[in-house]
């Protein structure tokens, strides 16, 4: 159901329906779920623009209760606004639109939870969040460094998203976990500039929690941080990743941080006929809502 008079809402029916447990009231919601169906700069296998819709559709298979946290989705009312109507093929305009909508929701004191879409969408989100949280810090869970300045001449690329964010907020505010792929130059940059913890997630994240506590945090989760055995439906799968159990534990480990927003990106459902990827993604969304709110 769309809240009448709310200019930032789009019909979830066109986005595969609302995520399970969503409220029908924007005003009373503590969080907003929104989709960013964009894969304009995908460099290998396309299709992540289909991710937000299918994550919502498979969420119906979830329980609304989390036995990990002993909480129900009804404990944390959230509103699903549907997908932002991004202009096909126009990365720059798409990022501007994402920024504008996210800044509106954040100004209304909503926790924002975005469904991608390729990873470049996070740049638009970050720009919107930064309008309110100037001292934002980023926790980046991914298989890839995403620290290029450009990809084959294109500066606005999913391969460059974290570098673009580092250029805005400073690399010392970026914490990277699970990274296991990238150019030699990217690894050198990360080791010298960001808080860089390659290959693993949970153990190094736990060690970083004390220095992150109290700071406004944005968490960006590329589904390919998981090993392809757990999430094969992604554009650039990378062997050697973590398990879904470790990823759940990593989300739960951040429960005492001041997380003000979260996104989950790079789900390409047409690449996973068994739907492992979209099912695990939906569960991570549920756990993120119940952990961070």
Write structural notes for this entry.
There is one protein chain. With 293 residues, the chain is of the alpha/beta class. The protein has 8 helices and 10 strands. It has a single domain, classed as Arginase, Chain A (3-Layer(aba) Sandwich), CATH 3.40.800.10. It has helices at residues 51-58, 91-107, 121-130, 161-169, 184-193, 202-212, 244-253, 276-292, and strands spanning 31-36, 65-66, 71-72, 78-83, 111-116, 137-141, 174-177, 195-197, 216-222, 258-265. The strands form 2 sheets. An 8-stranded parallel beta sheet has the order 4-1-5-10-9-6-7-8, with helices on both faces. α1 packs across α8 and α6 (202-212) packs parallel to α7. The chain is globular. The model is unreliable at 1-7 (pLDDT under 50).
Secondary structure: elements and pairs:
Elements: E1 31-36, H1 51-58, E2 65-66, E3 71-72, E4 78-83, H2 91-107, E5 111-116, H3 121-130, E6 137-141, H4 161-169, E7 174-177, H5 184-193, E8 195-197, H6 202-212, E9 216-222, H7 244-253, E10 258-265, H8 276-292
Tell me, what's the shape? globular
Strand order across the biggest sheet?
4-1-5-10-9-6-7-8
- Provide mean pLDDT, rounded: 92
- Largest sheet report: 8 strands, parallel
SS element count, helices: 8
End-to-end gap: 23 Å
CATH topology: Arginase, Chain A
CATH superfamily: Ureohydrolase domain
From N to C, what is the helix and strand string?
EHEEEHEHEHEHEHEHEH
Our estimate of the beta-strand percent is: 15-25%
Instruction: Report the CATH C-level class.
Output: Alpha Beta
Radius of gyration: 17 Å
Low-confidence stretches: 1-7
Helix content: 25-40%
User: CATH architecture, please?
Assistant: 3-Layer(aba) Sandwich
SSE class: alpha/beta
Into how many domains do the coordinates divide?
A: 1
Number of strands: 10
